Amino acid sequence: QLRFKESGGGLVQTGGSLRLACTASGSTLDDYSIAWFRQAPGKEREGISCIQTDRTTYYDDSVKGRFTVSRDNAKNTVHLQMNSLKPEDTAVYYCAGVGLALCGPNSDRDFLLRGAWGQGTHVTVSS
Asked: Which H or E element spans position 78?
């Protein structure tokens, strides 16, 4: 059974950077699109980035130009490089995988309904 584990979260100052990792076990990532979501206190979980099996990527406007998603299938890992962090980026970050899913502005529902999820990693950006 496919499982994910997120890592790399922490406390960083405004303008700083973090690199999150989403590592899969139980299966290979080759046939899965991977999405990154985040959930801030009191808010709904929202999709912010996604990478398909063909490496097509999608970014929400809130992170476009600051975050970069990449995948290393050989290491069964997807990374989210987060630069120019802002206090509003503070949240728990999750990764989710769905087989051969399309990434785009309307793909959140697919991942929320069908995705395999990790436990999340906390990111706190201080002002």
From this structure: strand 77-82
Q: For the purposes of burial, counting CB atoms within 10 Å of the CB of 44, is it exposed (0-12), middle (13-18) or buried (19 or more)? A: exposed
pLDDT band for position 18 (cuts 50, 70, 90): very high
Residue 2, pLDDT > 90, answer no
- From the list 122, 107, 97, 98, the residue with the least C-alpha distance to 4 is 97
- β-strand pairing of 67-72 with 77-82: antiparallel
Contacts with 62 (C-beta within 8 Å, 6 or more apart), sequence order: 48, 88
Write out pLDDT tens, residues 70-115. 999 999 999 999 999 999 999 999 999 999 899 999 999 999 999 9
Contact between residue 78 and residue 6 where contact means Cβ atoms under 8 Å apart: no
